[in-house]
Amino acid sequence: MKLTKERIVDAGMAVFAEVGYQNLSMRQVADRLDAHAGSLYYHVRGKEELLALMADRVCRRAYDAGTAALAALPSSAAWPDRVEAQATALRLSIKEHPGGAQLLAESPGKLSTGALSLMERLLGTLLDGGLPAEHCGIAADTLLSHVTGFVLQEQNQPSSPPAVTAELYADLRERFPLVMGELIPRIGQDEKFTRSVRLLCTGFAALKPPVTP
Questions:
Q1: Which residue ranges does the Swiss-Prot or TrEMBL entry mark as DNA-binding (predicted)?
Q2: What is the number of structural domains in the chain?
C-alpha cells in the first residue's frame, strides 16, 4: 500500500500507544508499515514533526467533536454549558487514542493549528460569557490543563486495584478517615469530570465584574 502522511500518522499513533513519547522512533513506525525508515522522510521530516502531526490530529478531532456538542445545545445555553460541552468533547476525543493525554501533555511546545483552534473557540466562549480579557487566557489554560491531566490519570490507571487486606484497610481508614471513610461521597469518573468543570466555571464566574444597578 502506498505510503501517505495519514498512514504514517496512523502508525505513529499505534506505536506511541505501545512505547510512549520518549521511546517512539521513526524506525518503529516504518516497521509497523513494513517500509524502510528512509522512505518516511519523503512525507514527514522526522520524529518531531510526526509528534506534532499526531497531536494535531487529536486536537482536530476534538475540535470537530466540540462543534457537534455545541450544535446540540439550545441557542439559549449559558456560557458555562458551552464550556462544559467543549471540555467533555475534548476529554472523550483524547480517550479515543491510547496515550493521547500523554501526547498532548508532553508536546505543548509543538505548533498545532488544531490546538490553536480549540484555544481560540474556548477564549471566545469565555469572552462572550463576560469574563475580563486579562483573565481569559489563564482560565482557558487552566481548563485545558485540567482536561489533559484528568484523562492522563484515567489512561494511567491500573487495570485492577491493588490488593488490600481487611487489616490494612482498617488501618488506612483509621489513619486517613477523610480519604478512606464514608463522609466524602465516591462518584464515577464521568460525574467527577462534569462536576470538576462546573466547579472551575464557578471560579471563572467570580472574575466577572459586578453588575452595576
A1: 25-44
A2: 1
Kindly report the number of other CB atoms within 10 A of residue 103's CB atom. Answer: 26
- The contacts of residue 79 (CB under 8 Å, 6+ apart) are 125, 126, 128, 129, 130, 201
Q: Which residue has the cell 466540540?
A: 66
Q: Does 8 map to a domain?
A: no
Residue 144 φ then ψ, to 5°: -65, -40
Report the CATH number at residue 190: 1.10.357.10
CB atoms within 10 A of CB 26: 19
pTM of this structure: 0.88
Q: Which domain holds residue 112?
A: 74-207
String of DSSP letters for the chain: ----HHHHHHHHHHHHHHHHHHH--HHHHHHHTTS-HHHHTTT--SHHHHHHHHHHHHHHHHHHHHHHHHHTS-TT--HHHHHHHHHHHHHHHHHTSTTHHHHHHH-TTS--HHHHHHHHHHHHHHHHTT--HHHHHHHHHHHHHHHHHHHHHHHHS-SSPPP--HHHHHHHHHH-HHHHSSSSPP--HHHHHHHHHHHHHHHHHTTSPPPP-
pLDDT tens-digit readout, 153-193: 998 887 777 788 999 989 999 999 999 888 889 899 999 99
